[in-house]
From TrEMBL:
<protein>
    <recommendedName>
        <fullName>protein-tyrosine-phosphatase</fullName>
        <ecNumber>3.1.3.48</ecNumber>
    </recommendedName>
</protein>
<keyword id="KW-0904">Protein phosphatase</keyword>
<keyword id="KW-0378">Hydrolase</keyword>
<feature type="domain" description="Phosphotyrosine protein phosphatase I">
    <location>
        <begin position="2"/>
        <end position="147"/>
    </location>
</feature>
<dbReference type="GO" id="GO:0004725">
    <property type="term" value="F:protein tyrosine phosphatase activity"/>
</dbReference>
<dbReference type="InterPro" id="IPR023485">
    <property type="entry name" value="Ptyr_pPase"/>
</dbReference>
<dbReference type="InterPro" id="IPR036196">
    <property type="entry name" value="Ptyr_pPase_sf"/>
</dbReference>
<comment type="similarity">
    <text>Belongs to the low molecular weight phosphotyrosine protein phosphatase family.</text>
</comment>
<dbReference type="InterPro" id="IPR050438">
    <property type="entry name" value="LMW_PTPase"/>
</dbReference>
<dbReference type="InterPro" id="IPR017867">
    <property type="entry name" value="Tyr_phospatase_low_mol_wt"/>
</dbReference>
<dbReference type="Pfam" id="PF01451">
    <property type="entry name" value="LMWPc"/>
</dbReference>
Length: 159
């Protein structure tokens, strides 16, 4: 079993979108029992809230559910629990390292560094562009899933 956590600032826009998209990919590929996914925020600002309407409505266009996703803050114990701790932008990565007290651990990395984009996921809370977020999140989730399958040496056989 491998465990992934997506982390952004508020845990209402980008990281819950990534959680929902990734969970949907796992379901479609029959990998639900092999890989687990969660999300969290580095801030406590929206703890207890469901995802932002922009995230929910964009996902609904693609028939991807957000049931059960409720904002929470990243906590110290998450470092031990998760194998991939994925920041949506560079400031998220800095905050993750600080909150977890792990200045330089390879399991903490920036999401789109796994893709050819190699950039931050812009924050749709400010840009309002949930379509851009969805496209980048989809690319990043594909890349992350491929990386995890390689790490697990499952390769193509279960795809
Ligand atoms: P997220 O976006 O980090 O993608 O969830 C934000 C959500 C809320 C705020 C900032 C960013 N906020 O300032 O409340």
């Amino acid at each position: 079993m491998k465990r992934v956590i997506f982390v952004c600032l508020g845990n209402i826009c980008r990281s819950p979108m990534a959680e929902a998209v990734f969970r949907d990919m796992l379901k479609k590929r029959g990998l639900e029992g092999k890989i687990e996914v969660d999300s969290a925020g580095t801030s406590s600002w929206h703890v207890g809230e469901p995802p932002h309407y922009g995230t929910v409505s964009k996902l609904r266009e693609h028939n991807i559910p957000t049931d059960g996703i409720i904002a929470r803050q990243l906590k110290k114990e998450d470092f031990e629990k998760f194998d991939y701790i994925v920041g949506m932008d560079e400031s998220n990565v800095r905050n993750i390292r600080r909150l977890l007290g792990q200045p330089d651990h390879p399991k903490i990395f920036r999401f789109l560094d796994l893709t050819e984009h190699k950039k931050d996921v812009p924050d749709p809370y400010y840009t309002g562009d949930f379509q851009e977020t969805y496209e980048l999140v989809t690319d990043g989730c594909e890349a992350l899933l491929n990386k995890i399958l390689e790490d697990m040496e499952i390769g193509d056989q279960t795809l």
